Amino acid sequence: MFQLCYASQSTSTAENLLQDLRNILIEARNANTQHQVSGVLCYAEGYFFQCLQGDEQAVQEIFAGIVGDPRHQNIQIFTENHVAQQRFQDWAMKYVMRNSEIKAYFQQLGHAQFLPHQLNATQVDGLLQVLYEALNHSVVDEVA
Questions:
Q1: 142 lies in a domain?
Q2: Cα separation of 83 and 103, whole Å?
Q3: For 99-126, what is each residue's pLDDT tens digit?
Q4: What is the pTM of this model?
Q5: For residue 141, is pLDDT > 70?
Q6: CATH number at residue 65
Q7: Residues 6+ apart with CB under 8 A from 53
Q8: Which of 41, 43, 65, 79 matches a 20 to 30 Å C-alpha distance to 123?
Q9: Residues 6+ apart with CB under 8 A from 75
Q10: Which residues belong to any copy of the BLUF domain (predicted)?
Q11: What is the span of the domain harbouring residue 57?
């Protein structure tokens, strides 16, 4: 199973943010379902963190679309590797808003806010675990 995790900064204005988030989720779910890719997307404080899992070629094609998406800037790839365990297989693209667990994780790392660009590989693994646990213990899928 191939996994790609990245962070990016949103280019959306405050007026367009909710609609852009909705559109991103719809587009991601459609593309991921079509290519049998799963994943999780977290957005908070102007930043995205996303993990995609699936066939390597399919994940790379989807990521190429993200790189070309004007709603993303300052894209930073964390991991591009094969993993033994697919954590997000039940979700074409699950959305996680900032929550207390994510906030606590970043505070534990010494960050006052959600700053995914500042994570190292070990911290990315920790964030993936926090997201996985959040997905399994709460309803996190609505863009309000």
A1: no
A2: 26
A3: 788 999 999 999 989 999 999 989 999 9
A4: 0.87
A5: no
A6: 3.30.70.100
A7: 1, 2, 3, 37, 38, 39, 59, 83, 86, 87, 88, 89
A8: 65
A9: 6, 7, 8, 66, 67
A10: 1-94
A11: 2-137
Distance CA 43, CA 41 (A): 7
Distance CA 79, CA 76 (A): 10
Structure tokens at 49: 């963190």
**Nearest-CA neighbor of 42 among 106, 94, 92, 77?**
94
Domain total for the chain? 1
pLDDT of residue 96: 78
27-83 pLDDT, tens per residue?
Answer: 998 998 999 999 899 999 999 999 999 999 999 999 999 999 999 999 999 988 888
Q: 105 and 115 in contact (C-beta within 8 Å)?
A: no
Does 144 reside within a domain?
Answer: no
Reduce the secondary structure of the chain to three states and give it as a string.
CEEEEEEEEECCCCCCHHHHHHHHHHHHHHHHHHHCCEEEEEEECCEEEEEEEECHHHHHHHHHHHHCCCCEEEEEEEEEEECCCCCCCCCCCEEEECCHHHHHHHHHCCCCCCCHHHCCHHHHHHHHHHHHHHHHHCCCCCCC
